[in-house]
Amino acid sequence: MEPDIVQGISPRIILHLDMDSFYASVEMQDRPELRGKPVVIGADPNHGKGRGVVATCSYEARAFGIRSAMPISQAFILCPHAVFLPPDFPRYVKASADVMAILKAHGFPLQQVSIDEAFLDVSHLGTLPAATDLAVRIKETILTHLGLTCSIGLAPTKVVAKIASDVHKPGGLTIVEPENLVSFLAPMPVRKIPGIGKKSEAVLFEMGIRTIRDLAAFDIQVLIARFGRSAIALQDIAAGIDKSEVKERDGVKSVSRETTFSNDTDDEQLIAATMGALAEEVCRNLSDESLYCRTVTVKVRYQGFVTRTKARTLPHYMGDPVTVCTCAHTLLRDIFDGRKIRLLGIRLSSFDTCDALQMTLEV
Ligand code: TTP
Ligand code: CA
């Protein structure tokens, strides 16, 4: 297959918007005295002895080398005079709903893909200049109404629009014309393709594939042998081919994560740490979907495959890992019978969305 441009159909125009340093920007908007300062949102640094990680930080803090997911103790070493703040999750959900309402007002198909990211299919505008005007207006509206900045990518496909929105962050607007699609992608590292993480990147490196150009030109049979059938879609993306549509979806019914231990275990510390990690992950999904939940379900599979679950519905909506983990521990205590555990899982349900937006788990 060839990229969309040479197929004789008019190329689509996809807009991808991603808010800049989202949680930190919301805090800086609410507290103008923080503007221009290194601001870190995440766990309590506790003078360098804190546990937990950075959720995000302002671009001023990034200049010191601080990044999302970095241990908070390391962030403290890099910039002890930064302003460290705990996340205010409900506040970010509200800001997210405000951003999405601004996008939705234009009447184009909207797909929210995380708390601060969305696609709009603006093909109906017909031309890139018209789409560019819209992108500029969206940026201005978000700035004047919410005091927040964002970065936008415009391109003929979703994947390329997403990659483009990241190119001139913060505050960027990057336009990829259909005839430049392949040359835009070619020199980029493979890691820029959404879904290629550290592990896949390392495997591709071993195969001598560094850039998207390398990936596009690689022997497809060898790629399939290594990655299975998904290699075909991957190579298509590298060649600028991506037919995925901007989809509005029905609401998510539940969010769950489970893990199987490499050896069945009754080690309380390992079980507690695993529960903590699962709680972090499901809450992250919840926040990505701009949801709160009331019901926590714990699933335990014992040695011999006997599976038990227990659920608890709380009187209030919540979405933070500490509450989820505490609730999950209580439930586990109720169903734990002393046998070794093979699998542990947490499911969150009974959702309340921040507004009537349709959410999706798919990128
Ligand atoms: P991102 O869009 O990945 O990051 P960002 O908006 O903070 O910064 P950028 O300008 O680079 O886009 O994530 C959106 C929000 O999700 C972020 O503000 C905080 C939260 N988040 C976490 O809690 N933990 C994480 O590891 C990441 C990556 C994000
Ligand atoms: Ca962002």
Account of the protein in words:
With 363 residues, the chain is of the alpha+beta class. Helices cover 37% and strands 23% of the residues. Strands 5-6-1-7-8 form a five-stranded mixed beta sheet. Strands 9-12-10-11 form a four-stranded antiparallel beta sheet. A hairpin with a 2-residue loop joins strand 5 (110-114) and strand 6. Helix 4 (89-104) runs antiparallel to helix 5 and helix 10 (220-227) crosses helix 11 (230-238). The longest helix is centred in the last third of the chain and has 21 residues, at 268-288. Mean pLDDT is 90; it is low at 354-363. It binds thymidine-5'-triphosphate (TTP) and calcium ion.
Concise synopsis of the structure shown:
The protein contains 13 helices and 12 strands.
Largest sheet: 5 strands, mixed
Helix content: 25-40%
Q: Could you give the distance between the termini?
A: 23 Å
Topology order in helix (H) and strand (E) letters:
EHEEHHEHEEHEHEHHHHHEHEEHE
User: Are any ligands bound, and if so which?
Assistant: thymidine-5'-triphosphate, calcium ion
Uncertain segments are 354-363
Q: Write down the overall geometry.
A: globular
Structural class: alpha+beta
Give the helix tally. 13
Q: For the largest sheet, list the strands in their spatial order.
A: 5-6-1-7-8
Instruction: Give the number of DSSP strands.
Output: 12
